[in-house]
Amino acid sequence: MVVSFVFRVLRYISWPVLTGLLAAVLVMLLLPETLNNGDRMETRGLSPDISGNWEGPASYASAVQRASASVVNIYTRKTLERPRHPLLDDPFFRRFFSNSNLPQQQRMQSSLGSGVILTKDGYILTNNHVVSGADEIVVQLQDGREAMVKVIGKDPDTDLAVLKVELANLLPISIEGGSMPRVGDVALAIGNPFGVGQSVTQGIVSATGRNGLGLNTFENFIQTDAAINPGNSGGALVDAFGNLLGINSAILDKTGYSVGVGFAIPANTAMKVLQDIIKHGYVIRGWLGVEARPLTRMAATKLGMDPPSGLVITSIYLNSPAHLAGLQPGDIITRINDYWVVDNDRSMNLIADLSPGDSVKLEVIREGEKSTIMAVTGTRPPPENS
Q: Are strands 369-376 and 339-340 parallel, antiparallel or unpaired?
């Protein structure tokens, strides 16, 4: 009877035990997968590097560290003449001032900006408007060293200037690629806003190829929403790896402060200016020797032009490449080297980017007839104040 009771007890508890054992086995089988899923959730959006470590875009400190030593603060001073009081030239009143302290006739004006070291031997790029008219120019490096600099040359057409500093152990900024950045790329602006010291702001590339702003003769700006303020002019716009994208130059000036619309001169343009000024003293650009204005859309439509755009030549310089090629006032240029003429700024850039002696193919409409004229570019005369 005891045996029968024990058998009934075992039979009663066997099903719960078996159920528990089965549940435990299932948990053991599924637990690794659950842990793996948890790991994946914790690292979602990140990617492993070659060593297998997990990393993400949590900081741009490496890019800033790489580029910031190449950005300098620039301090300029120039002497301004005070207007002379007219009574000082009057014989009657002159005696009243003869024995008194005359007002100082000169005063010093200070301004600040930024610059970028481009070569190990001390060539620096900055904006022309930062150093224009300055009597003294001093640069301060990130490591605290200061030195007077010499102006090697200026290019008002792009608002760039080349300086030279005689210091050892300079770190030039990294320039890789040379192509225009993409809209949406991360952009870091490094400079000396308001004279507070070297600072970094972060944003993206908002647009490329901006022109027609009336800032420079030749415009091909990178637009960014990285904050650019007074004192940032001439500083570096770099990518997320610390490579130079451009030279910060201007802001949309509604308030005098950054409103999220800043402009930088592309690195490839800046490097050409640097190399030409070092080699020639000014920038070598292609030139045809014409003055032109955009054809109105209405006039282009009446002429049956597709697309309805072109440039009407208004005047031609005597013995210029355009004159020697047979171009005439009134001719309408529709294409330059297979590029459609969209506006005056783009057309100027197309010609300026050519080297003197290059052939250029022009598609022209003259008195309703289309023709192709070949010209040989000359050298654009340097600006008078370069």
A: unpaired
Distance CA 263, CA 247 (A): 9
Secondary structure of 99-128 in HEC code, one letter for each residue: CCCCCCCEEEEEEEEEEEECCCCCEEEEEH
Domain boundary among 224, 258, 278: 278
Looking at the DSSP bridge assignments, the partners of residue 179 are: none
Contact 239, 266 (CB under 8 A): no
**Token couple for 141:** 């490096």
Contact 140, 117 (CB under 8 A): no
- The type of residue at 128 is N
Count of alpha carbons within 13 angstroms of residue 368, beta-carbon side:
2
pLDDT in tens, 286-320: 999 999 998 888 888 888 887 788 899 999 999 99
Reported in sequence order, the residue ranges of 96-213 that DSSP labels E, i.e. its strands, are: 106-117, 123-127, 136-140, 146-155, 160-165, 186-191, 199-210
What is the distance between the alpha carbons of residues 152 and 127, in angstroms, rounded to a whole number?
A: 13
Domain presence at residue 299 = yes
Rounded distance, CA 221 to CA 231, Å? 19
What is the domain range of residue 342? 286-379
Of 257, 278, 299, the one marking the end of a domain is: 278
Give me 322's structure tokens: 């355009």
Burial class (CB in 10 A: 0-12, 13-18, 19+), 378: buried
Q: Would residue 69 be called left, alpha or beta, if left means φ above 0 and alpha means ψ between -120 and 50 degrees?
A: alpha
Q: Note the pLDDT of residue 283.
A: 94
**pTM of this prediction?**
0.74
Please list the active-site residues. Answer: 129, 159, 233
Structure tokens at 7: 């058998």
The amino acid at 39:
D
Is residue 218 domain-shared with residue 254, that is, in the same domain? yes
Q: Report DSSP state, residue 173.
A: P
How many structural domains comprise the chain?
A: 2
Q: For residues 129 and 161, is the Cβ–Cβ distance under 8 A? A: no
Instruction: With a cut of 70, list the residues of the chain below it in pLDDT.
Output: 1-57, 80-110, 177-179, 253-258, 384-386
From the list 297, 293, 340, 348, the residue with the least C-alpha distance to 315 is 293
Query: Are 211 and 293 in a shared domain?
Result: no
